[in-house]
């Protein structure tokens, strides 16, 4: 499983993900039939931005064998628990800015005695794996950057995931791959390594990807970008009539 691969990270290398902002179950079947399917290690289902709603997650899970990480829309513990109930491999929580917030998220994601999550009849309970879903905290603000080390230190945080687009806005940087951005991202990577947590980045940008330090989870591109790249390539020239 993705969680097992990440927790025993030695030699895992970079696990590459496709970020979903609008694809439905049929879209995932198209992905499964593509030549790239076997090289996609995880899917990031984005509930913060884009067109996918929480009730769309279970149908997506039924349509794919690729492990799914859901990027939540908020820190709401009820929202987090409902997403874990669907049977996702893990959650990516946006805008984590302190150890206190990270501890709250661990409590929301964990069953007693570690946390406060309730158990009940849910999709995840139909085929229990005994595996705790991954909890990945996003660092994408100035406060989050300053607190990256203390966030990574929190027991139950499995990884730190950088959001370079929000972070570049927060730092008033003109792009995601400036020197200052790369040094900020390297600092977050070092914090994750110090506490033996996974380190992830959503990139969506070749220049940034090429300049990144070693990454465990790399968001390669969004479904929307893949469609645009395909359209641009196929409709690059007018047909010769
Ligand atoms: C960001 O770059 O801000 C993100 O949230 C990427 O998903
Ligand atoms: Mg963001």
Automatic annotation (TrEMBL):
Keyword entries, A-Z: Lyase, Metal-binding
Domain HpcH/HpaI aldolase/citrate lyase: 32-204
Record keyword Metal-binding present: yes
InterPro entries: Aldolase/citrate-lyase_domain (IPR005000), HpcH-HpaI_aldolase (IPR050251), Pyrv/PenolPyrv_kinase-like_dom (IPR015813), Pyrv_kinase-like_dom_sf (IPR040442)
Molecular function GO terms recorded: lyase activity
Domain of life: Bacteria
Metal-binding keyword on record: yes
Similarity comment: Belongs to the HpcH/HpaI aldolase family.
PANTHER family named in the record: 2-KETO-3-DEOXY-L-RHAMNONATE ALDOLASE (PTHR30502), PHOSPHOENOLPYRUVATE CARBOXYLASE FAMILY PROTEIN (PTHR30502:SF0)
Protein name: HpcH/HpaI aldolase/citrate lyase family protein
Species, as recorded: Nocardioides ginsengisoli
């Amino acid at each position: 499983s993705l969680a097992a691969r990440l927790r025993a990270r030695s030699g895992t290398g970079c696990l590459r993900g496709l970020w979903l902002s609008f694809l439905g179950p049929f879209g995932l079947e198209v992905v499964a039939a593509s030549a790239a399917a076997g090289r996609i290690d995880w899917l990031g289902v984005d509930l913060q931005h884009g067109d996918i709603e929480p009730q769309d997650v279970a149908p997506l899970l039924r349509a794919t064998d690729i492990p799914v990480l859901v990027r939540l829309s908020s820190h709401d513990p009820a929202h987090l628990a409902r997403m874990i109930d669907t049977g996702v491999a893990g959650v990516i929580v946006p805008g984590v800015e302190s150890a206190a917030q990270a501890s709250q998220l661990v409590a929301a994601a964990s069953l007693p005695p570690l946390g406060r999550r309730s158990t009940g009849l849910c999709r995840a309970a139909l085929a229990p794996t005994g595996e705790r879903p991954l909890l990945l905290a996003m660092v994408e603000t100035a406060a989050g950057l300053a607190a990256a080390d203390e966030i990574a230190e929190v027991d139950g945080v499995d990884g730190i995931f950088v959001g370079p687009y929000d972070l570049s806005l927060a730092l008033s940087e003109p792009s995601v791959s400036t020197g200052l951005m790369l040094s900020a991202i390297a600092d977050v990577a070092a914090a994750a390594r110090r506490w033996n947590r996974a380190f992830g980045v959503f990139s969506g940008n070749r220049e940034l990807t090429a300049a990144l330090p070693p990454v465990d989870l790399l968001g390669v591109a969004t479904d929307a970008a893949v469609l645009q790249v395909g359209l641009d390539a196929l409709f690059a020239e007018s047909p010769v009539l």
